[in-house]
Amino acid sequence: MDPLGSYKSIISARATDKRILKRCQDGGIVSAVFIYGLENNILDGVIVADKEEGFRPVPKVATTPEEVLEAAGTKYTVSPNLSVLKSAIREYACEKVGVVGTPCQILSLRKALKYPVGFRHMVDKVKLLVGIFCMENFPYMGMRIIVEELCGVRIEDVVKMDIGKGKFWVYTRWGEVKSVKLKKTHPYEQSSCHVCTDYTAELADISTGSVGSPDGWSTVIIRNERGEEIINKMIEEGYLERRPIDEGKFGLGLLKKLALVKKEKNMKEIEHRKELGLPVPPDVCH
Ligand SMILES: Cc1cc2nc3c(=O)[nH]c(=O)nc-3n(C[C@H](O)[C@H](O)[C@H](O)COP(=O)(O)OP(=O)(O)OC[C@H]3O[C@@H](n4cnc5c(N)ncnc54)[C@H](O)[C@@H]3O)c2cc1C
């Protein structure tokens, strides 16, 4: 079985809009897709993770490209994006909602759409699920300890965080770049992430992350017709530029390897927790 789940195609791509490239995490795929959706009446509201002081994430219903741009960039902590879904539909009266989420959030949302207990009248209003790759996340205080204690940077000064090349990176508004080896950040990970076996948001319409593509570009997994239609239109109309995915060991090879590592490592943890009588997810994807 493919460790990336099912998909139609995989490409490398990046946004062409300079405003997006200035603020985004990788190739700006999430922001570009949402802005394209809002500008072309495919979506009328999107759920993103904005941030408050201290890099605290806040789920937000964005209805304009400016609001999407404000929320660009990765927050390496939990942003309960699904908590504002009802608000998007009931308060903002959105009829065509896009949602970005980590693999666990995409899985939860798919489940809610399939078995809509408490989600009546909402199923047909969720139009696009954009998943972001995720190996693990950190509780807010964990992320803060990594930034302030391990990297020695005040959280107020941070403009960007990133994970890559075996390290957690912190960029400050003074132009400083600090990093710490992931070996040292492991103790601060959210423990529920260790029983998750989905690296690439397998149930999204479109999944994206940096692994497998050159710096500044994103790997884009197009999973179904809905995802394919929007990505193809964006390429045709010049919102995205694309290049073939590197099929080698630092491209698709690395992506598949990491996806498999997450499955195998966390399946072991699931078995271990089962032995101890601890609760584990009932229907993990293998
Ligand atoms: C905890 C975490 C771990 C990750 N691990 C990996 C990894 O191992 N490998 C990899 O290739 N990529 C990983 N990513 C994804 C990567 O960091 C980028 O988010 C992704 O490539 C999208 O970049 P972009 O330039 O297309 O998005 P942007 O255009 O910058 O947009 C990012 C979107 O994601 C939303 N967002 C930000 N943080 C969160 C959050 N915590 N929860 C939900 N939504 C959020 C933002 O509001 C924004 O709408 C991880 C992301 C997170 C949140």
From TrEMBL:
<protein>
    <recommendedName>
        <fullName>Coenzyme F420 hydrogenase subunit beta</fullName>
        <ecNumber>1.12.98.1</ecNumber>
    </recommendedName>
</protein>
<keyword id="KW-0408">Iron</keyword>
<keyword id="KW-0479">Metal-binding</keyword>
<dbReference type="GO" id="GO:0050454">
    <property type="term" value="F:coenzyme F420 hydrogenase activity"/>
</dbReference>
<comment type="similarity">
    <text>Belongs to the FrhB family.</text>
</comment>
<feature type="domain" description="Coenzyme F420 hydrogenase/dehydrogenase beta subunit C-terminal">
    <location>
        <begin position="95"/>
        <end position="247"/>
    </location>
</feature>
<keyword id="KW-0411">Iron-sulfur</keyword>
<dbReference type="GO" id="GO:0050660">
    <property type="term" value="F:flavin adenine dinucleotide binding"/>
</dbReference>
<keyword id="KW-0560">Oxidoreductase</keyword>
<dbReference type="GO" id="GO:0051536">
    <property type="term" value="F:iron-sulfur cluster binding"/>
</dbReference>
<dbReference type="InterPro" id="IPR007516">
    <property type="entry name" value="Co_F420_Hydgase/DH_bsu_N"/>
</dbReference>
<dbReference type="InterPro" id="IPR045220">
    <property type="entry name" value="FRHB/FDHB/HCAR-like"/>
</dbReference>
<dbReference type="InterPro" id="IPR017679">
    <property type="entry name" value="FrhB_archaea"/>
</dbReference>
<feature type="domain" description="Coenzyme F420 hydrogenase/dehydrogenase beta subunit N-terminal">
    <location>
        <begin position="11"/>
        <end position="86"/>
    </location>
</feature>
<dbReference type="GO" id="GO:0016151">
    <property type="term" value="F:nickel cation binding"/>
</dbReference>
<dbReference type="InterPro" id="IPR007525">
    <property type="entry name" value="FrhB_FdhB_C"/>
</dbReference>
<dbReference type="GO" id="GO:0052592">
    <property type="term" value="F:oxidoreductase activity, acting on CH or CH2 groups, with an iron-sulfur protein as acceptor"/>
</dbReference>
<dbReference type="Pfam" id="PF04422">
    <property type="entry name" value="FrhB_FdhB_N"/>
</dbReference>
<dbReference type="Pfam" id="PF04432">
    <property type="entry name" value="FrhB_FdhB_C"/>
</dbReference>
